Amino acid sequence: SISISFGKKIRELRKSQNLSQEAFADLSDLDRSYIGGVERGDRNISLNNINKISKALKLNIKELFEDIYD
User: Fold this and answer.
1) Cβ contacts of residue 28 below 8 Å, gap of 6+?
2) Chain-centre distance for alpha carbon 12
3) Which of 21, 27, 54, 67 could disulfide-pair with 61, CB 3.0 to 4.6 Å?
4) What is the pTM of this model?
5) Residues 3-48 pLDDT 10s
6) What's the maximum distance between 2 C-alpha atoms anywhere in the chain?
């Protein structure tokens, strides 16, 4: 599903920046358990939270969706 593919991409990007889920959650102003749910594909994430995640990763929102397929 798109949620699982997106979550895997977020996990890869987070790890590539050597961020723990907790540190990433702090940077994105989201709860660590929410980040875990996003990374597992359990969450249907809102545009507002996608924006927070892109800012925390210092990436354009478009970059979060590169190579993501349903």
Assistant:
1) 35, 49, 52, 53, 55, 56
2) 9
3) 54
4) 0.86
5) 999 999 999 999 999 999 999 999 999 999 999 999 999 999 999 9
6) 29
